[in-house]
Automatic annotation (TrEMBL):
Chief location category: membrane
Subcellular localization: Endomembrane system
Region of interest (Disordered), residue spans: 253-272
Transmembrane keyword on record: yes
EC number(s) stated in the UniProt entry for this protein: 2.7.8.8
Family: Belongs to the CDP-alcohol phosphatidyltransferase class-I family.
Transmembrane segments: 12-33, 103-120, 132-151, 163-184, 196-226
Protein's name in the database: CDP-diacylglycerol--serine O-phosphatidyltransferase
One Pfam family, short name: CDP-OH_P_transf
Taxonomic classification: Bacteria, Pseudomonadati, Pseudomonadota, Gammaproteobacteria, Alteromonadales
């Protein structure tokens, strides 16, 4: 009887290592909120990118060390809501949208609500959705679009109030992309444990060098291109674009997969 009670107590514990990364990401997101309130917009934008790094590490560390847990998954989602939902929305509002009045905070709310809905939908589709693609723009990538834009604008001494309408439009569209049905590459099919040739390592080094030269510009352009890639992939995949391919409950995934299957079979039939 005593052994079973001790076993129950042990099972109530949480794994330290992956949750440390999640906590670091949560701290970065919270710091971004505080920094934006103090008009330190560049530090706030950088903090969101730091939260992205921590968010990318916690899941991989958990899988590598076999320390996955339901607690870790829920904690990660709540931390993501702060780092990639609230923090970018408040950063955009404090930088450019405050002078727009109701329109400004409504644009920020659209983004925040989009992030919450995106995370909720992702949690309900774990183990069901196609792992090769994300349905809708992932919240870290959406946060990178907002943070990268503000980081770049701050480096070029651009006053957000002068482009408040453009900033509001970008914020609202980014929020809508998160709840859209556009398909984005997840890059989960890449085998990170596998061996690669020397050229691949040189390419990775080159990427780090390029990003370090102008991090704000390169990251901003990169994530804008990724945000645009979803509509491009979806439009190229389907033969006839419908409203259900843009918004809906995800039933269009079968049509998209069927379209890809027919396309691949047609291509294979054309080969000699």
């Amino acid at each position: 009887m005593q052994n079973s009670s001790n076993q129950t107590v042990k099972n109530k514990g949480i794994y330290l290592l992956p949750n440390l990364f999640t906590t670091a990401g949560l701290f970065s997101g919270f710091y971004a909120v505080i920094a934006s309130m103090n008009a330190n917009f560049e530090a706030a934008a950088i903090a969101i990118f730091v939260a992205m790094i921590c968010d990318g590490l916690d899941g991989r560390v958990a899988r590598l060390t076999n320390t996955q847990s339901d607690f870790g998954a829920e904690y990660d989602s709540m931390a993501d809501m702060v780092s990639f939902g609230m923090a970018p929305a408040l950063l955009a509002y404090n930088w450019a949208l405050a002078d727009l009045g109701k329109v400004g905070w409504l644009a920020a709310f659209i983004y925040c609500a989009g992030a919450a809905l995106r995370l909720a939908r992702f949690n309900t589709q774990v183990g069901v959705a196609d792992k090769r693609y994300f349905q809708g723009l992932a919240s870290p990538a959406a946060a990178a679009v907002i943070a990268g834009s503000i980081w770049l604008g701050n480096q070029y001494s651009l006053d957000g109030k002068n482009i408040s309408w453009i900033a509001g439009l970008i914020t609202a569209i980014t929020g809508l992309l998160m709840v859209s049905n556009f398909r984005y590459h997840s890059f989960k099919e890449i085998d990170w444990r596998g061996k690669v040739n020397f050229i691949a390592i040189l390419f990775v080094v080159g990427v780090f060098v390029v990003v370090s030269v102008q991090p704000a510009l390169i990251l901003c352009i990169g994530f804008y291109l990724y945000a645009i890639s979803g509509p491009v992939i979806t439009i190229r995949t389907v033969r006839k674009l419908k409203v259900a391919h843009i918004v809906g409950d995800g039933e269009h995934e079968k049509e998209l997969d069927a379209g890809e299957g027919s396309k691949s079979s047609t291509n294979s039939a054309d080969k000699p």
